[in-house]
Amino acid sequence: MRTSQLSLLVMFASLSWAAPLQAQSVKAGAPQGSRVHLVLTGPAARTIDVEVDERAAVVDELSGPPTLTVTMPAGVFARLAGGRADPETMRDQATVEGDVELGERLIANLGYTI
Prior knowledge:
This protein is of the alpha+beta class. The chain has helices at residues 3-13, 18-27, 74-81, 87-90, 100-108; strands at 35-41, 46-52, 56-59, 68-73, 95-98. A five-stranded mixed beta sheet has the order 3-2-1-4-5. The longest helix has 11 residues, at 3-13.
C-alpha cells in the first residue's frame, strides 16, 4: 500500500463514515422502512447500519433483516463518498445483496461533499 493510500484511509477513519451513507440513502430513493447494512473491508473495516423512516438515520442495530447489504473495501467507499471516483468504474469492487436496484442507486449516488 502506498503512503498516500494509507494516509487517505487514516484520514477517513477519523471522520464520520456514516454521513455519506445516511444522506445518500434518501438521495438514492430508499423507500421508508428500508434497512441498509454496509460492510467495509480492509484496514479500516467497519459496518454501518442505516434505517429509513421519515429520514435516513444511522442506528446501532437494524430492527429487522436488511433490505440491502453492500460490501466493498473501505478505500473504495472513501473514494466514492468523496467524489473521487466514477461509480461505474468502481462498481465491480462492490457486492450487492437484497434489493439490487436500490444498491445500484446507492453506489451511483454515494458521492458526498460539503
